[in-house]
Amino acid sequence: MSDAGTADLPHRDPGALTAAALRPLVGEGLVIAHPGLDGAHTLTLVAVEERPEATPPGAPRTGFRLVLRGAADAVLPQATYTIGHPDLGQVALFMVPVGPVPGERGAADYEIIMN
After folding, report:
1. Is 57 contained in some domain?
2. Three-class SS string for 8-56?
3. Is 78 a member of any domain?
4. What is the sign, positive or negative, of the torsion defined by CA atoms of 85, 100, 102, 63?
5. What's the predicted TM-score (pTM) here?
6. What is the number of structural domains in the chain?
7. Of residues 2 and 97, which shows the higher confidence score?
8. pLDDT tens for residues 34-78?
9. In a domain, 6, yes or no
10. CATH number of the domain enclosing 54
């Protein structure tokens, strides 16, 4: 990634990611970068949920969903972002805002679906 805070991280193939590999990162900050952003943003990974019902027969991995949380006053639009973490490297993934978090004032969630 060419954005500050993630430039030194190795690139990862999104197809090689698994729920098991990402689950240990729950509660940690992931750096979110995009050429259209003013600098990098940090979102917290709050959930990794396997989705066997959405996994095609014969797929090399079970589909899963990532939920990330950030501040509601700076909601990022849906787009493909470069996401980085020292234990993950950097990977380009499509992320969608899913709205404010009920019961958590000032927080907004994002979703990434991996099939």
Report:
1. yes
2. CCCECCHHHCCHHHHHHHCCCEEEEECCCCCCCEEEEEEEEEECHHHCC
3. yes
4. negative
5. 0.89
6. 1
7. 97
8. 998 888 899 999 999 999 988 888 888 999 999 999 998 888 999
9. no
10. 2.40.10
